[in-house]
């Protein structure tokens, strides 16, 4: 049987060598191998589509009988490299194959990864949740015996290697005649080894079910390619690890994925925009140069009535300021922090939700649901090694973005003090458990809070109502107190606006039809920011006119579409404006006027520059 297997292995090796040696055809892989040698790498990326086109039977066998076929493929690659450059082939013990292309039914998620895929090549997509440390793993050890002047060599493999033949895990210290052995560390061979866990994408997981995850083994050049939070696509072989306890097994095995190729999926925060989009943005700026700021502010969350100044402030926050790093090491932040404080039901949380879907990178948190270390950074213990490691919190993940904190008043004081440094310096400094680190967290903070007594008490001073420390309030550049006042005219406008929003239906629908339960009702992108709009081919500058959105009195007003707003903000952030001398002197005058006002009224919080 062994001879037959060897013959099959040799035949497979010959087929793969024919596939790689394609100089007569187009020479694609011939040039790829030459590039690999010039870049000093030892992993060749092969498209399964090319193999399928040249030898369909071999491609199907590679997908279903992965371990033997991959060993044959890698041996063929080593032979081919030796024929191209013999000295380079001697530098590395093994050469590796990475696979890409279309995998058909073998393209799965961690939920659909079932027993029928064992020992097959699969392509899995998911989010990295955990990363272990990179550890060296011994592959071959060399031992020298001073008594007999001989050297002994031993190879080690386990079930996480491709050619997993059982080898003794006992490390040799004596030979057969009980002579002591010395390990020659310089001649021994090691490989990098890392374990990561990938979890299925939250948008693809069925509602109400916990997301599934799978462990992935990364070796050699694949380690340290990903970090927690990355969306990746892993191609590898699916295998089960037999586990025995006390000499018997229950029949349930732990399964792992041994990766041969890791690809980062597009997790770029930049929106995709073409030259036509940039031209539209420039044309819009030219045509509306006088009132462009008002126009964009009105289009910010058009489903919310009023709050003109708050919308302008949020637009300023999204556009950001100009950051300066001075030579003496100090940094003047360019991020604007805003605090909205006021009565319940004045659409504070709705504004936060709109920002979440408009800002290029925004992370939501709530007061009770987040602790101080959860916002900044936590020191945790690695389960495998017992070592301490650092895990980034929400504000570090939102570097160069926006953090939205709802129910800010419900946070405990200890947790609230943790974000003082972030809001002023734009960084987190940690000195705990032997770890001293400084992480960047240059983010804007948009916080919403209720007053101390639930509702705003008109008979108490603003500072008593807010109930936050002055040291924290001075870090918020803009503070808005939003009151729910009883004004019949205002109430009529708001109720009319809200009812119009709720009345919106699909134009093709018949009158009197019941709305289908559980289906996504077609709504305007500006109505509900939670509604994910499909990428349109052409960028629409304005929303289509709709009586219900624009209202009977506002026919002439145009609302900028959310997609255009997102792209406009991204382009505008790249521009670094310079303050003129007149503007600087005007700001200085206004500042001194505000300070003199606060002297007269002692209760108002001090204005600081």
From TrEMBL:
Q: Which GO terms describe its cellular component?
A: chromosome; MCM complex; nucleus
Location within or outside the cell: Chromosome; Nucleus
Q: Give me the segments passing through the membrane.
A: none
- Top-rank taxon of the source lineage equals Eukaryota
Q: Which GO terms describe its biological process?
A: DNA strand elongation involved in DNA replication; double-strand break repair via break-induced replication; mitotic DNA replication initiation
Molecular functions (GO terms)? ATP binding; hydrolase activity; single-stranded DNA binding; single-stranded DNA helicase activity
Give the keywords, sorted. Answer: ATP-binding, Cell cycle, Chromosome, DNA replication, DNA-binding, Helicase, Hydrolase, Nucleotide-binding, Nucleus
**What role does this protein play?**
Acts as component of the MCM2-7 complex (MCM complex) which is the replicative helicase essential for 'once per cell cycle' DNA replication initiation and elongation in eukaryotic cells. The active ATPase sites in the MCM2-7 ring are formed through the interaction surfaces of two neighboring subunits such that a critical structure of a conserved arginine finger motif is provided in trans relative to the ATP-binding site of the Walker A box of the adjacent subunit. The six ATPase active sites, however, are likely to contribute differentially to the complex helicase activity.
State the family it belongs to. Belongs to the MCM family.
Record-given protein name:
DNA replication licensing factor MCM3
Which organism's genome codes for this protein? Answer: Ramphastos sulfuratus
Q: What is the lineage of its organism?
A: Eukaryota, Metazoa, Chordata, Craniata, Vertebrata
């Amino acid at each position: 049987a062994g001879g037959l297997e060897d013959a099959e292995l040799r035949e497979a090796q010959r087929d793969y060598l024919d596939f790689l040696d394609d100089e007569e055809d187009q020479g694609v892989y011939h040039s790829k191998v030459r590039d690999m040698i010039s870049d000093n790498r030892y992993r060749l990326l092969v498209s399964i589509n090319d193999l399928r086109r040249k030898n369909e039977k071999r491609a199907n066998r590679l997908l279903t009988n992965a371990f033997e076929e991959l060993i044959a493929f890698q041996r063929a690659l080593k032979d081919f490299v030796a024929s191209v450059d013999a000295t380079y082939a001697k530098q590395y013990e093994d050469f590796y194959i990475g696979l890409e292309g279309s995998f058909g039914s073998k393209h799965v998620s961690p939920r659909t990864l079932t027993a029928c895929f064992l020992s097959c090549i699969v392509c899995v997509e998911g989010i990295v949740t955990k990363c272990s440390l990179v550890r060296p793993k011994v592959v071959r050890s060399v031992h020298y015996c001073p008594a007999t002047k001989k050297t002994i060599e031993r190879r080690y493999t386990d079930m996480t290697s491709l050619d997993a033949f059982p080898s003794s895990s006992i490390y040799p210290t004596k030979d057969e005649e009980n002579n002591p052995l010395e390990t020659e560390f310089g001649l021994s061979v090691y490989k990098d080894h890392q374990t990561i866990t990938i979890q299925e994408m939250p948008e693809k997981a069925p509602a109400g079910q916990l997301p599934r995850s799978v462990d992935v083994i990364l070796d050699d050049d694949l380690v340290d390619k990903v970090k927690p939070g990355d969306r990746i696509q892993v191609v590898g072989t699916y295998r089960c690890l037999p586990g025995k306890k006390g000499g018997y097994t229950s029949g349930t095995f732990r399964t792992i994925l041994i990766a041969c190729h890791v690809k980062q999926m597009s997790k770029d925060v930049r929106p995709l925009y073409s030259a036509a989009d940039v031209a539209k943005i420039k044309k819009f700026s030219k045509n509306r140069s006088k009132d462009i700021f008002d126009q964009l502010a009105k289009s910010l969350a058009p489903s919310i009535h009023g709050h003109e100044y708050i919308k302008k402030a949020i637009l300023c926050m999204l556009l950001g300021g100009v950051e300066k790093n001075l030579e003496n090491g100090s940094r003047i932040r360019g991020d604007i922090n805003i605090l909205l404080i006021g009565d319940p039901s004045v659409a504070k949380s709705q504004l936060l939700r709109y920002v979440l879907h408009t800002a290029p990178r925004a992370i939501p948190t709530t007061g009770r649901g987040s602790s101080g270390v959860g916002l900044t950074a936590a020191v945790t213990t690695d389960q495998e090694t017992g070592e301490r490691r650092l895990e980034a919190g929400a504000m570090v993940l939102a570097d160069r973005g926006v953090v939205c904190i709802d129910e800010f008043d419900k946070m405990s004081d200890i947790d609230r003090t943790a974000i003082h440094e972030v809001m002023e310096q734009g960084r987190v400094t940690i000195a705990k458990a032997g770890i001293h680190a400084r992480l960047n967290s240059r983010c804007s903070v948009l916080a919403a809070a209720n007053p101390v007594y639930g509702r705003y008490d008109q008979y108490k001073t603003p500072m008593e109502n807010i109930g936050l420390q002055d040291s924290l309030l001075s870090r918020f550049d803009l503070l808005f107190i939003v009151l729910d006042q009883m004004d019949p005219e205002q109430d009529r406008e708001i109720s009319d606006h809200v009812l119009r929003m709720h009345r919106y239906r699909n134009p093709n629908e018949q009158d009197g039809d019941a709305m289908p339960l559980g289906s996504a009702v077609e709504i305007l992108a500006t109505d509900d920011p939670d509604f994910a709009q499909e990428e349109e081919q052409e960028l629409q500058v304005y929303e289509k006119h709709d009586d219900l959105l624009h209202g009977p009195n506002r026919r002439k007003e145009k609302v900028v579409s959310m997609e255009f707003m997102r792209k406009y903000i991204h382009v505008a952030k790249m521009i670094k404006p310079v303050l003129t001398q007149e503007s600087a002197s005007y700001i200085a005058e206004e500042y001194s006027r505000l300070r003199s006002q606060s002297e007269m009224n002692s209760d108002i919080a001090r204005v600081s520059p």
